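notes to self, project folder thing:

trying the whole complex as one job this time. last attempt i did each chain seperately and stitching them together was a nightmare. two parts in total, labels are on each line so i dont mix them up again. if this works i'll redo the older ones the same way
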Amino acid sequence: MDKFISLIARDIRLAVRQGSAFTMTLSFFVVAVTLYPLGVGPELNILTRIGPGVLWVGALLSCLLTLDRIFQADFEDGSLDQLMLGSLPVEFMALAKIIAHWLTSVVPLILITPILAVSLNMPADGIWAMMLALLVGSPVLSLIGAIGAGLTVGMKRGGVLLSLLVLPLYIPVLIFGVAAVEAAIAVLPMGPHILLLAGMSLGALVICPVAAAAALRLAVE
Amino acid sequence: MAIDLHRFANPARFLRITSAIFPWAAIVTVLLLAVGLYLALFVSPEDYQQGQTVRIMFVHVPAAWMAMSIYIMMAISSATGLIWKHPVADLSAKAAAPIGACFTFLALVTGSLWGQPMWGTYWVWDARLTSMLILFFLYLGYMGIWGSFDDQSKAARAAAILVLIGAINVPIIKFSVDWWNTLHQPASVATMDGPKIHSSILTPLLVMSLAYTSLFLTIFIIRVKAEILGRRLRILRLANLEE
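result (full assembly):
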């Protein structure tokens, strides 16, 4: 357990000291979301209508951009081999790196979401629902993404393949995430959608570290 | 188990058996397709609401069934390849993927051609349609992963991991019409109370689906043979280089 936590702490420290990691993802998220009002026009009722979808798609894409960071740097400097030789099972090693990725790359997106939501003219109920849905659903993004990152870790130009592998599997999260926010905006119960998202997160928590570990074993052999 | 299935993992024996099956599969495909298309396009009655467009169903439904069945088959043979390390299992999954992708594409295209006169639109973001589209992307990703590794045994294992993760999508496709109750009609052939459609439509549908299955078998045997022989050629070339 100590090793597990210290591995998470190591990854977070690396991300913090590199500095640019946080700001780059956040800026991408902000810029991507800003493109929509420019593209579809500034009518507030249209923005309210498309807001949940825009924010979710933006979060998905920002997360996708950071996925290669989970294993790539460690693979290149050889520390991944050392980590896999260590006493921590590879599955837990993968899970620790996934948690670190979620904390450093996805949580900042959730924190900045309210500001962007306000700029998209989303009502207050919708903003809370958006935060809740992202909080419950976004672990799936890191978890599934880790499989794709593990499969493409040794590849040159793996980025395009990574998006082809991962984005189709993100679609269910997107559907239920948007449905939850739209239900909240329409003053309908959003509980079922949130519960489905939570179910996906828990299911992915079980399956994805195992699959990511299998992919990593393949990459370093 | 009564039969030792591992015997069939031997490539030479596999090639011998499939070569023996191949001409029969080809003949059966031609016969069934001829009979099935005749029954579907000429004999079966017009629908009182849909008119002639109901006949699209006879190419659409079996294609969708095949798209899912082939994916399940790929998942099973990939799991076999991962567990017992039979190269033939990996190769058969690889050989099946493009065929499955074609059937998925066929199901999507025929469905959208039928949707235009019936639903008034080529495409709706219905649960069944969306999950079929995801299946299509999964097939593409699977083929992409085979193409992006130099080492074939690594590619086989990476692809197998992807197929097994994507297998979650198959029950979602199957039950999407029951869970979300959307525009696509619910299951009407394989239900607990037996088929819900009249035999004049059911018979051509079943003949067509048998025809599709044997068509798959025929193409599959050609592709697996090509894969096995291609691998053999590579090994021979490598052996030549070493001399």
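what i see at first glance: The interface with chain B takes residues 144, 147, 151-152, 155, 158, 161, 164-165, 167-169, 171-172, 175, 207, 211, 214-215, 218, 221 of chain A (CB under 8 Å).
need to look closer tmrw
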